[in-house]
Amino acid sequence: GFCTTLLLSQTSERILARSNNKTEILCKLTNEHVGVYWYRWNQERQKFEFLVYSNPFGKAMYGTNITQDKFSVRGASSQTSYSLYINNLHVTDSGTYYCSIFQSFQLFVGSGTQLSVVDVLPVPLKTTQTPHSKKKPMQCITKSRVGDKKGACSLLVWVPLVAVILVLLLSLVPIAHRLHRMRRRLWLRIHRQ
Known about the structure:
single chain; alpha+beta; Immunoglobulin-like; eight-stranded mixed β-sheet; four-stranded antiparallel β-sheet; 12 strands; rod-shaped; Ig_sub; adaptive immunity; CD8B protein; glycoprotein; immunity
């Protein structure tokens, strides 16, 4: 019988691939093993189809009507991972693929990888984001703070303005004094003649 186990795992739960391309399904084993079987669950026929068996030496045994051009298996030198390669994908290749090992007269099956083959890959939706502003964030000001702000703002404007006016007035005092002296001299000259 078939038994799910922690002895082996498949890295991708789902793969979406485009037709005429190729894909890889990875199977990892917790221990070294003498070989891995690959099956596909056919939803239409409601049955498992044997695809290929591969041993660590690269020898492969294929199922009925399964060709080496379509399916190939490569194992790591550690004999703890095997990859199933599916070439020239068609929509009919869609299904759930399982790697499995035979141990103690039982076939232990991995978690499965659901492969969906489509003619056109769906375009991911673009999420619109508001552009980040470089301006400083706005502050909330309470009514009491508004009055303080106005006062501070008016002081910041009026104090320098008054200071400038005072400086101008003080600079006008000597000029006015000179004008007054010149006027007096002129008046004296006129009256002497």
